[in-house]
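Render TRAP transporter large permease protein in 3D.
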Amino acid sequence: MSWLLFLSFFALMLLGVPLGTAMGLAGLAVVFFGDLGLMSLPTSVYTGIAKYPLLAIPVFVLAGMIFERSGVALRLVRFAVALVGQRRGGLALAAILVCMVLGGISGSGPADAAAVATVMIPSMARAGYPAAFSASVIAAAGSTAILIPPSIVFILYSVLVPQASVPALFAAGLIPGLLAGLALMLPAWWLSVRHGFGVAGLQDGEARQSFWSALKEASWGLLAPVIILGGMRSGAFTPTEAAVVAVFYGLFVGLVIYRTLNWKNIYEVLVESAEVSAVVMLIIALASVFAWAGSTLGTFEALGGWLVGLSGNETAILLAVTLLLLIAGMFLDAVSILFIFVPFLLPVILHFGWDPVWFGVILTMNVAIGQFTPPMAINLMVTSRIAGIRIEDTVPWVLWMVGAMLSALLLVTFVPELATGIPRYLGYQ
């Protein structure tokens, strides 16, 4: 039955069946042929999504879209450009900064990349940046959204690993998220200087806002992460309630401050966010059937035991797990990776006594790298579509970003205090 579970899943995936559907059908096959009881299916689906932390996902998706449509991204771009200044590589650095700030609002890599690419790619093209380079930088920077709190991936991980609370994971992702952003800035700046990107913008003298004017306009957007994270830290609201606060704050900014939203826009945002959230929750529900079937058969425990038995060297196992997750990230989405790999990696975590919060950060950084590593790079697909180029055109540029992000991953892997220091200081561990 264990072979049936994985072989049917991979066969369906190779046939082009959507991953969520493939996991659900593979779980169904095991339940049916293994005589595990068909009535367990509706129970598995319901228990898979009937978890309080998951309420935050659709609300954070809505919050991210509201901030995008309200013009916050545009004002943050203007502020970042004013902050960085008019120099070679300045717009690339500004794009990374904006992605990091928006990541503190939306928690979604593709949404972050789409919002920034829509605003930045035309400006970068006018300044002489190749479209493939711009798409690569923004796709990579957008992946920091799932590291910098609030993070949808962290919420899902906390559901699968109860030993890691959402507040602890949010606090743990702060320094690694900043490190990832800084690591991406180095190749973005160096490549820009080396190839002379941004020279056109320097020569044309394109109008730029003054620093204080740009800061004043962007202040409402900059306050959003402070309100969300500060409210959670002070105990004013839970992570799930923080998502609701973010929605109402975004509506206030769009309707009252910037006056860029109207009721038609709000209706469109509600519809679009409902569609996105429905897809995510459906994948979670179907993946829950797969996870329940695997755990009932004892498949995941057996896989975890096999992995532990490969070597007694803890470092070798950790690097092997990292490599496995990196390869998986190139082909699977974040939700699928969590539901496929976390169940059989949990025994490995417990065997070696790894901190589940630190491991959650490591796993999420691997998923983040996968979001912009071809062939199945969702962030890169989004930015390439906006830039009007093929994803293959980005490979020479995006590999630099992958290398930079890998350096940040290895640093956090071998210096766990970078992830565990803040949660321990705040008393979450």
